[in-house]
Specification:
Elements lengths: L1 E6 L5 E6 L2 H8 L4 E3 L10 E3 L5 H8 L6
Length: 67
């Protein structure tokens, strides 16, 4: 996965995460991709997950949410 921070033409900061085919195969195999926040200047990690539907994604992530 490609990770990059920068600024758009309007000056707004952005975080770009670029996925390749191998990343998509990993995601569709039920393996989340984790981007450690410290590597891109964030205080928290970014986790990318895949599901066939948003309901599938919700079922997967709900046990991990903050209350």
């Amino acid at each position: 996965m490609l990770r990059m921070t920068g600024r758009g033409t309007n000056g707004q900061k952005f975080l770009l995460l670029g996925l390749d085919r191998e990343n998509l195969i990993r995601l569709t195999s039920g393996k989340p991709i984790v981007c450690r926040g410290e590597t891109v200047g964030l205080e928290h990690d970014v986790i990318i997950v895949f599901g066939e539907t948003l309901d599938d994604v919700r079922r997967e992530i709900m046990p991990h949410r903050d209350e």
